[in-house]
Design goal:
Mean pLDDT: 88
CATH class: Alpha Beta
Order of helices and strands: HEHEHEHEHEHHEHEHHEHH
CATH topology: TIM Barrel
Number of helices: 12
Low-confidence stretches: 1-35
Bound molecules: zinc ion
């Protein structure tokens, strides 16, 4: 079914719903107080099955391609030739010039294997690797991890990412390695970014000109009680952290990253997902202001910032030199187009194509062209150039 068919279907569905609503209105005029006419307290539909169609007759902007060329600074790629081919065709269809693909390994052999998938398209993909933090809790850790990083760099890794610390420390794989670099490994207890054991690796990133993409903490509602007051309950419940004891908390993780960036001013850090501060962009702005080697990507948080679109527009204008575009998802043209529509247009009350995870409608941020150009591409190029210029 193509997009046009889908729209026709939506229009037909809408028309039949309107007719039904009018019929009902005739049967039970507004203000009818008959108890039998009252809606049942029990909704028959589960929220997770809710796929709303906007009823509003408001301007709809069709965005087929991004307005300017895009570099996706946050992508996890595909682990088969078919998936890489699909990615390329989605990129072509929507105007994505290049994607940074995070190869989920710090082991040089595994990195070498993964890079063969992408080697035919050096202009379209750039590969970043992980740290190999195996043995971080054992004496003698350090030189081996630095050597592995140098080796991955020699094999073509141009940056580091996506590192994670959701409270247990940076990812350390334990037990058997997963079958594919694309699969998540079982994670043990690692070291937080500001742990001195990691210092030699941050320093080596600066020396090799490798920027670092790092995800710390998670959205604030994953820490809040899972009750009727939780503003993100429908999504938070799946990612909940409130029931996991012993994790370093939300604020402490943000502070750990800021301390690390201050301690390593020559290393460039890109905090993933607005540093998980999409609920408090003022605080993110303050952190960016005092940390010149820190940037933030906007990946996978479109719905969170779209619901506060006027405030986000102001924030993005103010910090337009420090934000980069990213997706975090495997491409479907529909998802990409929905992201571009959110950033570029002033459309009201629409829903993401191919995806619903947040149970509220989207509103366009209506960003000016100068900001779009920077966020889509120029800031990414600036980060890559800046990292490489300071290498040596
Ligand atoms: Zn990611």
């Amino acid at each position: 079914m193509n997009r046009r068919d889908l729209m026709m279907l939506s229009a037909a569905t809408l028309a039949s719903r309107m007719a039904f609503a009018q019929q009902q209105a005739q049967i039970s005029p507004a203000g009818a107080s008959d108890a039998a006419e009252q809606p049942s307290a029990e909704l028959p539909l589960k929220l997770q099955d809710w796929r709303p169609t906007s009823i509003y007759k408001v301007p709809v902007t069709q965005v087929e391609k991004a307005k300017y060329p895009v570099i996706d600074m946050h992508n996890h790629g595909g682990d088969t030739p078919e998936k890489v081919r699909d990615m390329l065709s989605s990129m072509d269809a929507t105007g994505v010039e290049k994607a940074i693909v995070f190869i989920n390994t710090g082991k040089p052999e595994a990195f070498a294997q993964a890079r063969t998938l992408y080697s035919g398209h050096p202009d379209r993909f750039e590969l970043w690797c992980h740290f190999d933090l195996t043995g971080v809790n054992e004496p003698g850790f350090g030189p081996g991890a630095v050597k592995a990083l140098e080796e991955c760099h020699r094999l073509g890794a141009k940056g580091i990412g996506e590192l994670h610390d959701k409270g247990k420390g940076l990812d350390v794989s334990v037990g058997t390695e997963p079958a594919s670099w694309h699969e998540p490994a079982a994670h043990g207890v690692g070291a937080h970014p500001d742990d001195p054991r990691i210092d030699p690796l941050w320093a080596k990133c600066a020396e090799l000109g490798m920027p670092v993409s790092i995800h710390v903490t998670d959205p604030i509602w994953t820490y809040l009680p899972m009750d009727s007051h939780n503003d993100g309950y429908m999504t938070a419940f799946h990612w909940r952290l409130d029931d996991k004891p012993g994790l370093l908390g939300h604020d402490a993780l943000i502070e750990s990253l800021e301390r690390t960036a201050n301690k390593h001013p020559k290393t460039i850090f890109i905090a993933c997902h607005f540093l998980n501060l999409s609920y408090d962009l003022t605080r993110l702005g303050q952190i960016l202001d005092r940390t010149p080697n820190l940037y933030a990507d906007i990946a996978a948080r479109m719905a969170e910032v779209s619901t506060i679109h006027r405030f986000t527009n102001q924030f993005m204008q103010k910090h337009q030199d420090r934000l980069v575009f990213g997706t975090d998802f495997f491409y479907s043209p529909g998802e990409l187009r929905s992201s571009f529509r959110t950033l570029e247009t002033a459309d009201d009350h629409f829903y993401y194509e191919d995806y619903i995870d947040y149970f509220w409608p989207m509103y366009g941020l209506d960003l000016p062209d100068t900001v779009l150009k920077k966020v889509y591409r120029d800031n990414a190029l600036q980060i890559l150039q800046r990292a490489r210029a300071s290498a040596g």
